[in-house]
Amino acid sequence: MIKVGIIGGSGLDNPDILGSPIDVKIGTPYGNPSSPLTCGKIKSVDVAILARHGKDHSISPSNVNFRANIWALKEYGCTHILAATAVGSLRREIEPGHLVFPDQFIDFTKKRETTFFDEDSVVHTPMAEPFCPELRQLYARSAQALGLSCHNEKTVITIEGPRFSTKAESHMFRSWNADVINMSTVPEVNLAREKKIHYASVAMSTDYDCWHAEEEPVTWEMILETMKKNSDSVIQLFLDVIPQIEMYEDVCTQ
Q1: Of the listed 56, 207, 232, 240, which one is catalytic?
Q2: CATH 3.40.50.1580 fits 3-252, yes or no
Q3: Catalytic status, residue 207
């Protein structure tokens, strides 16, 4: 049975997209998740929305309890996770307002709990393809049909935060062939993979970080302004993709 989790940042935790939503609190061995799960249906599909930074956006990137979030969604029975995240663009062609569907990540975080297997067992999880390719292709096809500007098969680098990059760091990340930068994809994606949940991210480009000499360096206010414009596009994409996931259940079975 398909159950879809949506992990949203600012503006993407709107319960109005669900039919008759209810809040479900789930405790975990790792403490409380960032928010209760707001649960309901989109078409015939069960959906649970989790606010990554809390419903009042009070949790900084470094303090997100990623293990509790993924554990709670798995406990609720989620088989797939659609994750929305704001990113800075490291490429001129990825303009603010564009959507990006990463297929690879670079982990530049410093102090996060990145695995469920750190105590009683040693498990080496394959991570060559961290994002579900079937979900990414669904994103790409739906975005094209909806007329949304998007980029597929890109690399996201996750930094610790909460500060933004220096110019030297931004240019270094570009030299590493990273395409976009954020503070939230890692360890969310690898924890989902450990729990055998199909995970794919929709990254919303909000700015050019600070490498682009012709653009202003990124600020939080800049991100919020572009996020408001992007949120409707991402919700539109999710509403189109979620009913299609059931069609791919056999393909996506691990």
Answers
A1: 207
A2: yes
A3: yes
